Amino acid sequence: MFEPDHHLVLAPIKGVTNYIFRNALEATFGGADSAIAPYIVTKESGELNQRQLFDVDFTKNQLPTTAQILTKEVSQFLHVAKLYKDMGVKKVNLNMGCPYPMVANRTKGSGLLLHPEKVERLLTEIKEKCPIEFTVKIRLGRECTSEIKKIIPIINDLEINDLTIHARLGKQIYKGSVDINGFEECLPLLRTIPTYNGDIKSVTDFNRLSKRMPQIKKWMIGRAALSNPALLSQIRGEVFNEQTYRSKFIKMHQMMSYEYLNSANAKSDYLQRMREHWLYFKDIFENEHKVYKKIKKAKTIDQFHEVIEWAMDQEISENILN
Ligand SMILES: Cc1cc2nc3c(=O)[nH]c(=O)nc-3n(C[C@H](O)[C@H](O)[C@H](O)COP(=O)(O)O)c2cc1C
Questions:
Q1: Is 79 helix (H, G, I), strand (E, B) or coil?
Q2: CA 306 to centroid of ligand 1, rounded, Å
Q3: Residue 15: which pLDDT band, with cuts at 50, 70 and 90?
Q4: Which residues contact 26 (CB under 8 A, 6 or more apart)?
């Protein structure tokens, strides 16, 4: 059951949980206490994706949002962290969980977990020099859960107090089940209480996990909050009927459309960005396959808006109403 001292974090999902989504969620269904933004990649040249950089600009964000960096280079991390400080960002997170082979094989993301000596050097220097609060998101390992056991003493020694653990291995990518036993094994070894992340898909999942691990206070939720934007509020005990759900979702969608269409960078790829959201939003509807097929078929903004008008009249899935 949700308790007043529980804290819900919206997970970073690259391409989806940008400030436009985060603000629209906060203004309609609500339910998140904070968010971590999707990662920005650093390069030796210092070149940075400007849209991703400004995604965490303090003035644009309604939710307290931690920035996230994917790198293995201390100097590159610190360079971006300083830019974030100037933008009013309060916290920055190191991504040590990204599972994709192109990333992990280059000793970045979850690839770092195979090299505790590199992790020690990286975290020690960042912790010492980072101009804003430094936080970490990791998995249980890349190949096996014994890997995190070698990382935990480093986290403890450096007093990194904000740690999120996605209870999977890097090699699982995003598939297979989460390893709750593996997560629980970390708890007595850690000096800090971590944020739990992985496969909270419903209020029932949240209630089961929070009952099993009463010491956990922070819970991070990703994909299921994109498929059902009411989930975080439902976990807090809010109840939506078909009518209230529909009107909030229409409002949320209108806010997102408006922001995308009026933002200089996003207008040209409006359809592509909205399709990425609908990969998840389709699950709101009973006939999700038909809805998504029509979304994919819309080739112009007008056609897309026609489909949206039709979709908003479709029956909402019973699974997501409580
Ligand atoms: C398409 C996709 C993109 C993701 N992008 C990021 C990211 O930018 N940074 C990060 O730390 N995790 C990222 N994740 C992982 C999620 O934040 C989260 O750890 C994972 O999905 C498990 O939580 P969930 O089961 O609640 O979705 C991504 C996951 C997916 C499926």
A1: helix
A2: 31
A3: very high
A4: 32, 62, 63
Q: Would you kindly state where each structural domain of the chain is located, as residue ranges?
A: 7-235, 242-320
Which of 179, 223, 276, 278 has the most ligand 1 atoms within 8 A of CB, as the residue to mutate? Answer: 223
CA 139 to CA 31: how far, in whole Å? 25
Runs of H (alpha helix) within 91-179? 101-104, 116-129, 146-157
User: What is the model's pLDDT at position 158?
Assistant: 98
* Ligand 1 pocket, Cβ-based, cut-off 6 angstroms: 11-14, 38-39, 68, 95, 97, 137, 166, 174, 197-200, 221-224
For domain 7-235, the CATH superfamily is: Aldolase class I (3.20.20.70)
Q: Which residue lies with its CA nearest to atom 28 of ligand 1?
A: 13
pTM (predicted TM-score): 0.98
Instruction: Classify 133 as helix, strand or coil.
Output: strand
Q: Are 171 and 142 in contact (CB under 8 A)?
A: yes
Cα–Cα distance list, 51 to 14, 41, 48, 57 (Å)? 12, 12, 9, 10
Tell the residue nearest (CA) to atom 4 of ligand 1.
Answer: 13
